[in-house]
Amino acid sequence: MPERNPLSEPGERRRLPRIAVDTETFGRFAEGVANFMGTAKFLVYMTVFVILWVTFNLVGIFGFKWDEYPFILLNLFFSTQASYSAPLILLAQNRQEMRDKLSFDEDRRIAAQSRADMDFLAREIAAIRMHLGDLATRDFVRGELRTELRELGDRLEQVAGDEEKP
């Protein structure tokens, strides 16, 4: 019987346990971290932390130096911080981008509705103007009444003149 090679056959697939994460809560956390890391307060805290770290490890506290020069442990902390902060910042940016897209889509929808409303109103105004051409204006009615009154006055004078001629 040939020897069995375990690498030539697929093994059982191991699955990691699922961890339930509330994406909204984690997203707010990521935005909070990203907002804090973008402040002057964070830079001051980090600067003070590094100065104290270097000072304590160069001078030593009671003769104890836990991270001597070249400060490998400090570099490890910075690497860990960078490896976590970059994805958190990207997550915060993605969430902001999604909010901006929703806002842009809503603005676009409102602009389209406003445009449709303006087009409708422009058509209505044009229709009103066309119909106003068919309507009698106040000045036109006054002019017609004056003309009719003159003609009526002329006829009355003519009738009065005809009655005087026997």
From TrEMBL:
It holds the Pfam family DUF1003. It comes from the Bacteria. The chain crosses the membrane at residues 42-64, 70-92. Keywords: Membrane, Transmembrane, Transmembrane helix. InterPro entries: DUF1003 (IPR010406). This is Uncharacterized membrane protein. It comes from Tessaracoccus bendigoensis DSM 12906. The lineage of its organism: Bacteria, Bacillati, Actinomycetota, Actinomycetes, Propionibacteriales.
